[in-house]
Amino acid sequence: MRMKRISITLLTIVASAVQLFAYVTPESGKVYRIHNVKSDKVISEDCIARQLASVDAAGNDDFKQLWLLKESNNGYTIQNAYSGQYLHHCAQQSTRIYPTGAEEAVMYLTQVNGTQYAIGQASGAYLHLDGSNNIVRWYDAANTGSQWQFEEVNVSSEAISLQQAAFQKHYAEYQAKLELMQHIDEYNALLPTFFTDLTCTELQPSYVQMDDAALRTAMAALPISLQDMAVKIKNKAWGHREEEFRVRNYKAYSDPDYWANVLYTKKYGRINNPTGIYGQAGDVLYIFVGDEVPEGATLKAEVINGSGIQGTAYDLKKGLNMVPTVKDYSNLFIQYVGNTSLESDVLITDYPALKIHVEQGVVNGFWNKEEHDDADWVDMMANLATADVFQVKGERIMFHMSRYYLKQFCPNTITDAIGWWDDMTRWQQDMLGIEDVRLTKFNNLNCAISLTSGYQSATHYRTQYLDSYTGNLLPYERMMSNADNCWGPAHENGHVHQAAIQSVGTSEVSNNFFSNLTLNKLGKFVSRGSANSVIFNDYGNHKPYILRDGASTMRMFWQLYLYFHEAQVDTTFYPRVLQAMRATPMKARDPKYYANYVYGNEDLLLFAKACCDVAQLDLSEFFRFWGYLELTDKQHIGDYGDFYLTTRQSDVDEFLAHAAQYPKAPSIIFIEDRVKPVLRTDGGDGHKLHHGTSVSASEAGDLGHYTDFMDISAKADGYLFSKAGSKVTITEGTGALGFKVYAKADDALLYGSNKLTFTLPDEVAAQDIYIVAAQADGTDVPVLSVAEGGDEEQQYAALATAIKQAQATMAMSDDKGMKPGYYFGSAVKGLSVLLDSASQAYDAKDQRTHSYGEWATLLDAEMRRLAADPAARQVIYAANWYALYNANYPSYSMATSGTKLRCTIADPTGSDAKQWAFEPAGDGTYYIRCKSTGNYISSIAQSVQVSATATTTASAVKFTVTDNGNGTFTINDESQNYGALHCDAGKTVVGWQANSTASTWSLTCLVDGQTELFDIELAKLVTRAETVLGEIIANYSNDMDDAATMVMLSDVTPLVAADTLMLWAAELQGYVFWYNYADCQIDNYQSVIDAISALVNQLASAYKKPLGMPEVSTEESSVLYYIKPVGEELFLSYEKTAPRYLTYLRALEYEPSYSVEYDDPTFLWCFLPADVEGQYYIVNRKVGTGAYAVSGKSNLAVDATVNTPAIPFVITPDEEQNGYVISTTAGSKWNTNTSNYVQTSDKKSVPWQFIKVGTSTSIAPVVPTPEIGQLYDLMGRPVAAPAPGIYIRGGMKVVIR
Known about the structure:
Blueprint: E1 23-24, E2 31-36, E3 41-46, E4 51-56, E5 67-72, E6 75-80, E7 86-87, E8 100-101, E9 108-113, E10 116-122, E11 125-129, E12 135-138, E13 148-152, H1 157-181, H2 184-194, H3 205-208, H4 212-218, H5 224-235, H6 242-246, E14 247-250, E15 253-254, H7 256-263, E16 274-279, E17 283-289, E18 297-305, E19 312-315, E20 319-325, E21 330-338, E22 354-359, E23 362-363, E24 367-368, H8 374-383, E25 389-393, E26 397-402, H9 403-409, H10 415-430, E27 446-451, E28 457-459, E29 462-466, H11 476-479, H12 483-497, H13 511-522, H14 532-540, H15 550-566, H16 573-583, E30 597-599, H17 604-615, H18 620-625, E31 632-638, E32 642-647, H19 649-659, H20 697-700, E33 720-724, E34 727-730, E35 738-743, E36 749-753, E37 757-759, H21 762-765, E38 769-774, E39 780-785, H22 786-789, H23 792-811, E40 813-814, E41 823-824, H24 829-844, H25 852-868, E42 881-886, E43 893-897, E44 900-904, E45 916-922, E46 925-930, E47 939-941, E48 944-947, E49 959-963, E50 969-972, E51 980-983, E52 989-992, E53 1000-1007, H26 1010-1035, H27 1043-1046, ...
Parallel strand pairs: 15-21, 24-25, 26-27, 27-29, 30-32, 33-39, 40-41
Antiparallel strand pairs: 1-13, 2-5, 2-13, 3-4, 5-6, 7-8, 9-10, 10-11, 11-12, 14-22, 16-21, 16-23, 17-20, 17-22, 18-19, 18-21, 25-26, 28-29, 31-32, 33-34, 34-37, 35-36, 35-38, 38-39, 42-53, 43-44, 45-46, 46-49, 47-48, 49-50, 50-53, 51-52, 54-65, 55-56, 57-58, 58-61, 59-60, 61-62, 63-64, 66-67, ...
């Protein structure tokens, strides 16, 4: 099982003695004990089974652990000192235990590190100790489970010979026992002569009177072992409790595989019938079955080693059966399985119990709640149990666990341990809705086993636990001492039962419904999981259910339980929901599909629909808050496999329509069981306890305790709310379960809370809201704001709060535009005026203009407008260099010292080591570069000093820079949990979590490179605006009083030009534009640029003129154009780098300056008339020649060095008048391929746009160097000392930067 999403605290007690061994370099001819590096296990041999085993190191008298190495063919043979058998090669990787055999096999030792070696049959095939302590084949010698160390053991060759002789004798005896199995039919024919029944538990009367010798003589045809059995039975010479376990009636159990599919559980236990008998290696067990196996049933004997739950099974039939055991402590189980099904009328109780008698092997016993008590337990532990595991059977669950730890942790009683595990299983089964089949058709026990290593986990046929930790899980008193102790088993057994409600992504979530159920039923502790505030924050941030944290999402199941079961609305709710989910299962859990790609209506919304149907209530609000209605598109979730959830709008609409047929449910989303004290029900005094991972009562909320849902007559009254920024405070009232926040604009549900004080997400806080209180009867009542419903004193206090918040907002403004995250000075002018007026009213206690509440409302609305306006805040620009001040240490700013980052108090103004650039890395992330070294931040890790060694972005860290809304930023590598830049107490910059104040930074621009770029962009934009206005005036001169005047810009500065453009535009559009940029100092360049650009685009589209032919050029004067595909930001040029396609026409990305002087001439084109009317040569200004067709291709090119004449083209407007179609005289049309090369085609065409740039006196190649000459402004006045702007020189426009 993987690590849990819900943390479970475990104290691991390792019950193994610490031993020190001297490890050596192995040599041929010596004997060694071979230790695993990763574990404390050594290599032993199951000699009869002929395979390796791992065991704890023992003394030198255990020769199974000793191995003799002999050099052979550049490797070694490895021979067991006891059996004389050799380590053999393993044919399968990871799934088969390494075998041994009589023949020699060469193995190779590879030194890994010092005295640590890999033992392998070949490269990539090594002995490896896996998680189950099996020694298997594995490929990776670097894995410590595949590394071994050699402890030399001094034993004589004589001692080895004696041991091997002893094994050979033992093996010969085993072979003799196997030989007896060949005569089993003969024995079965003879045994009825001597015994009254086929179980051979009672002698015929004539033999009871014989003495032992006479009886043996009479039975001489049978083996000695059967004679011994008869003598024992005649003399009633059973050992201590021997007859109790050797002769028993075994009942039939249902098929766990079938019922797991039907009931949507993991497979229940399959070892329901322990015998209490085990065999040793080389034994043959005699199993006498008294009757025929009933029709529809199967009967097997299965021998299982250790705490495993599967072994080797043998069919049983009436009479004597013989079963060999090849390993020590092979526990014997009877597998009596009766066939039952949902469709059949056959009951499991229809199958009669079978009497079975087991001989040979060792009586170990087992404890059964139906027949034993604690006195029996103490007796069995003291006088019977010797195997490594022991079985404890309860009513609904059984233990198959370490005898050593069972005896240690439960020395005097087992009833309390199996008792609370039975209760846990019963409580969980009660939720499944299976009482119609449990015990009548399905009666398997759940099963819990212990392991020598590993975590708690659940899988088919069992849950499993670390044996040394079971002392916390089994004894009732110890379990109840800590909530974790019951949570673990309940969590794992929850895995057994969760499948019917296990939507994708909830493997470690939906099972915790059963964990909280168990915690609640035990009666000492409150439930576990996040507070409701997490639900509402996730909802406010539009987070889908499957992407939320499991500590929160598990509460969804628990909230439904609290409402329907604890509040006693419908205590049959969950059993009926699980029955419904089994009837219409989720596709990811349906055995017919086990789908990995699912739609919402096949998964989580199927569960939501079932809940509505069972409750006969519209639960859509509940599931909306839980993120069930958020749309997802193949959202990946790793959940013991890869799953992909797509929730479509149609899925959501279908669910909402289905839910709407029922009356609205109360606001169950607020329900809690941790708000008020709850009396303990475990017999202890006082109230249920909050514990390690449970939230406190104050964290759980102020409202919504489940008992409050039970009084539907309660009404919400007396509540008022005030809002300061994102913080909402609600006055004390009565009767509410919680509060819901809606948008005034569209009544959209935005947020919720069961607290009287809560903080809204930024997106919600920026909206105009109203709040309602939820009541137990399912209705809501409005909660007025203090400004609306408060008395004069409350409104006055609300105004004071609003003024304080507005002052804080004003303090977070910067007129110079040098503080990212701060407001532009121009953006807060409206708030400044309003604040002044409100403050005067407050100070004078003047309500003549507005009431105090109205002033507070106006301030709040303006602050909300600011917060919602992204253009109002200053942003980070790649062209600037910034100082980063730490929010926790405001005088300290980040610096590089060599390649390491730290914070110092020195002024960053003149220090390049303290200046940083943010370079966009895509997807909203940035690379961060130091000015002094030019290096990028290259590594960040938890508590490790951050480095800046990357010379290129290829090895630089990508950071997400988050504006926190308070003038600070969090700079975080979101690919890790501790990826935020953080200033620690020693002023070292390290990686840490993003939720710390020392992980937030304020930025100040020290070197402004962006303003110059804005100036250039504005100048280009003004030029474009001038062109647009010129076209408009030229085409609409009949509507103008003075078109010639209007075409001229009144001044040369960008701001005045923008102002003029807007004023003319206002007249053209027939409205008055209210804002005059010429009257303000610019601090928000981007806002100005966006406004002008939007207006130019609006004008250009609003006054589209009918397309005419482009102006043609002459040899004396060229009219130059950009040519670009319509709708693409690409411009026609030609290939300049790819050798194979040099001079081929190609549309490329380009930033035009709209200036003949300063544009790249390779992007400028003119049109020369051809001999036939309507045909043109298309000539490139740089090359000076027209386009031609490349020989043998559909491509076009221009090249002055190639002696290929230009060809004429036909130019016609397209049907929509959006652009021009350019064709050859043969009719092939211009288009572009995937690489944007221009080609001609008879089938496909691309429309082209011609944008006039200006005129030139020549079409020959031009180098754009300004001519010396008089400059004139745009009004025709000579200029001696030009400032930056647009001028006329030599009849052409030029831009001075």
